[in-house]
Amino acid sequence: MLLDGMTLAVAAATAWSQPITFPGWPDFGPIPRTAIATDGHHYTAWEDAQGALLASADGAAPERLADRSDDYVAAAAPGRAAVAYSRGAGAFIAVRGEPQRRLVKGGVEDIALAADPRGGWVFVAQSKHHVLAFSLDRRGRTVRRQDLGNGAIEDWGRQSRVLTVTPSGRAYLAMYGPPPRPLLVVQRRHGGPWAKPVRVPGQPERQADYTDLSVVAAGERVAIGALTPTSCGDVGCAGFPLIGGPTEPLHGPRLTKPNRVFAPAVAPGVLVYQQKTGKKSFSRSAPVVAVAGGRGQRLTGAPAAEPVPLPLSGGRTLVLWTTAKGWGAALAHADGRFRSISAPPGPPTGRFHTADTDRDVQSAGRYAIAAWGAEGLVHISVRRFP
Fold this sequence. Notes:
Layout lengths: L4 H8 L7 E4 L9 E4 L5 E6 L5 E5 L5 E4 L4 E7 L2 E8 L2 E6 L5 E5 L4 E6 L5 E7 L2 E7 L5 E9 L12 E3 L5 E6 L6 E6 L9 E2 L11 E8 L2 E13 L2 E9 L16 E7 L2 E6 L12 E5 L2 E4 L6 E8 L3 E7 L4 E6 L5 E3 L18 E6 L2 E8 L2 E8 L2
Antiparallel strand pairs: 1-31, 2-3, 3-4, 4-5, 6-7, 7-8, 8-9, 10-11, 11-12, 12-13, 14-15, 15-16, 16-17, 18-19, 19-20, 21-22, 22-23, 23-24, 25-26, 26-27, 27-28, 29-30, 30-31
């Protein structure tokens, strides 16, 4: 078991826990990556002041995983947790309590990791313009390795989600195909091979540009999100936010000024994005808008950043975002109507961060977790929803 007495008390609560803190990389702010399981287990990885990769299970004293890393991601399931990371020699997985294993030799651009609820792990890496997909057993050993062909997975310096696994063990990967870069979705049943990548429905015959690709599951429901950009600059791309699914065509709200809309994110049935109310160059801060059940709703009037919708049990959706003062949050039940709720306490995230975002939020069942860098520390807060 990963939970200790302190975390059990936190998990039983129905309010956000006071943040657990750890020292992190001080120069640009710590960059945590976190995961939580349906029973409240959580696992968070970050780099310390010397650049070593650390990980903490349920707020316990961290363990050292590597002297350095280029990229890293966490995953968790009841009673187990893992971190995958890349560095010059390739990509590795560190399942807690098991020997580390190298999965890919050589350079790796981007990685993704997810726990399979029916056992094992799913790992994806982009290497030399090819997307490699792995099915791993509980200990992190490779059961199946497949080359999904020429393509890329998203890494936009925000909380990208390109890999998800449903309770039945069906995995979904969202990726870009070779030029002209169509949006592709790839599926794998638990224990089986990956199917051939297929185009996400709803794309025009003449290929449009897309950014901000993501895929998220709630139970067996799966949503795919993207952005058709009208302009791109130093703060990212603006344009038309889209939501669809493996068999549902991409669609989105009608917008008169798409150049003021950016940072889309999805959960099944919910599309969230930022929408500026006026011209403001060189800034990504803007109010948050959510669209659910065909209705649009502004969640905050104050400028905000990086909104993320998180599915919860009971058909609910939690949205978290950050402002200059701290976190903001809203919750919708199955009716799709959002209401403001309490948010993770503690100092705000860094005003500026590197190409890798300094925050990460995740959910599983009744639980949600937020991990962020602020004032040279990693902050971790957990909430159990009734």
